[in-house]
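PROTEIN DATA CARD
Card holder: T-complex protein 1 subunit eta
Chain length: 605
Origin: Tagetes erecta
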Amino acid sequence: MVIQETKRIFITNINPPFLTILIQSKTLASQSLPLTSPPFSTAPNPLTMASMMQPQIILLKEGTDTSQGKPQLVSNINACMAVADVVRTTLGPRGMDKLIHDDKGNTTISNDGATIMKLLDVVHPAAKILVDIAKSQDSEVGDGTTTVVLLAGEFLREAKPFIEDGVHPQNLIRSYRNASHMAIEKIKELAVSIEGKSLDEKRSLLAKCAATTLSSKLIGGEKDFFAKMVVDAVIAIGSEDRLNMIGIKKVPGGTMRDSFLVNGVAFKKTFSYAGFEQQPKKFLNPKILLLNIELELKSEKENAEIRLSDPLQYQSIVDAEWNIIYDKLDKCVKSGAKIVLSRLAIGDLATQYFADRDIFCAGRVAEDDLHRVAAATGATVQTSVNNVIDEVLGSCEVFEEKQVGNERFNIFNGCPSGQTATIVLRGGADQFIEEAERSLHDAIMIVRRAMKNSTVVAGGGAIDMEISRYLWQHARNIAGKSQLFINSFAKALEVIPRQLCDNAGFDATDVLNKLRQKHALPSGEGALYGVDINTGGISDSFANFVWEPALVKINAINAATEAACLILSVDETVKNPKSESAQGEAAGGMGRGRGGGRGRGMRRR
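Structure generated from the sequence above:
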């Protein structure tokens, strides 16, 4: 009897490498089953089998989390919109403040977009891009940090329905970049130059820019007082690019109106020894010596071993140490300087020595204060007291020590080079003074930018509405999907005036309709109309001196568009939790190694 063995192959799971093949054997007699008609083909296609049996290529470590495709992109957009919603309410003169406190108990009250974004400690990888653009706007321009985050969030909000409908992100990115380029060209066209004005006119125009920035801050109630102070400080440093030439000193107590500007340098009195009170506290036209050496009696530090055959020789060694310090002090006095400042300590011996000779001294002066004194007085910091000539000494018209609140300040006025200024801030609470400092920093940056790039545009949402109208009009001439994408970009720009209204408690729909009607006038006379925060209607922002440098808007639209395009171009996020846990364990191990283990040489208990 002829026996034939047939194999039946059932593929139960075709997901390599978990390919399970069930082989069933059955012995069939030739009499019961004809050989000509088997139930399954005994010769399967070898190409098909080879493709199914190929092993999987593993690129990533086990445990790697990958998410990709449309859901991943929508998730990133949602995260960025959530971050934008956090700072949304801080925009404009009626914006609210955020109170942020950390695990160390530090409390910060601020409505500055960049400060809030830094303190939020965002962990989502896509949302961190918004933190970066806020920091970039802060360092490049100084103001508009909330605007840039809000615009980026709104661009993504408008893009989200298109992504969900299956539009390819690259189409959106291309249209957004074109729209951004057209918007920036329009801003340059609408910008008004303040170049060629007299100094008094320029001061007035710059003060208007500073007041616009300060109006949205905590110190907005005194914006005119501080705007003038900021403009004076920026003009005082002239073409000097270094921002640290404007010092801001904080003294708790008093009111904001007690703040004042020093056309020179002011810093808090440093630690002093006995004899300090005997020194004069006021000089007219003094010479100033700046040092980077210690004027202190120091014993030998190098563990030197000296063998003496005669005990009387010990006195000569002690005398030599005293002679070294006295020689340094004599050279300082002979230089003719009446004020001696050092970055390192000036000891009690030197303090008394200078007091006996009617010389003022201060040791341990902060490095940035010392550099500002050098820039203002024309002095050069010396690392030796040998050969101190007149060329390295500085001078000023008046030096005096004044009491400001509970602090005593050393103030240099009437400095010859005049490339420094110091603002002394007063106020009730520490958090309030900290926020006032951040506000002044923004205003200083804005005034510097307005001086260098002397073009301004109308604020209050006027420029945003005009660009939006321009893009809506331009989009009508475009055939295809790009028309929809540019329209969505134009609609996103309206978020600025809309949010200004919402934060002030006005009806945003009503105000925006009025603005659209005004900006649509064919004569173009409505191009400068924006939101009027005081009345809840619309007004000519330019006539009301609500100005901002054109660079603020250009930078904000550029950065927001780039951030939105960057997020739209990401279609996969790869996260390796194993490497993260390994880093955490390493950090924990280091902590245990430092404090948890028993140190070498410690006694057992």
